[in-house]
Amino acid sequence: MKVLVPVKRVVDANVKVRVNADNTGVDTANLKMAINPFCEIAVEEAVRLKEAGIATEVVVVTVGPKASQEQLRTAMALGADRGIHIETDEELVPLSIAKLLHSVQKKEQAQLILLGKQSIDGDNNQTGQMLAALAKMPQATFASVVTVEGDTLSVTREIDGGSQIVTMPLPAVVSVDLRLNEPRYAKLPNIMKAKRKPLETMTIEDLGVSLKSHQNIVKVSPPSERQAGVMVASVAELVEKLKNEAKVI
Q1: Contact 10, 79 (CB under 8 A)
Q2: How many percent of the chain have pLDDT more than 70?
């Protein structure tokens, strides 16, 4: 079984970001970049499926500038077999990413596509669902447990108030949640081996996909600074402030 894992290059989760001077986006100059944490969990799950003898090949794919190859090499150091880089400097919306991934899937014919449930930069949670719709494949979102038995996939997914178990035939699309696993750290020998693993580079034109932007970012602003708290002398004073100043009750 081949597993396809789309990954995204994002600002490292431990870095505090700031808006650039012209309010058009986040200033990423000289910032540490990393694999989106949810994508890293998807890579880990795919590698575990291979180690369990269920998957035969793990292919990672990303869309982005040339520097995104760094994240593909990281994913290969974690255990992926090869990488596909769709090189572009454009800022693409989730639907465009889903169309490109669909084109890659038609070429690769993977039986399972594992994605992170969302990206931590744009906070998007759409690509997996759009990809499943384009590919007309069954899907499960927010997976906390993934089990493969023959041609059947069983996914435990987190829902409000508990969990839900769904089963579906393969091929399928699954977006993973935080509780699915804890990603491993890449060891130095594996980092060196990853440099020799196959990495295919292509362009949007190579895939023959026609893309169209459906939205524009008008302005990006930092959140308002948190105001200092106020000590109150009694519950009555607290209620009065909540009612007449904050107007929340």
Answers
A1: no
A2: 100
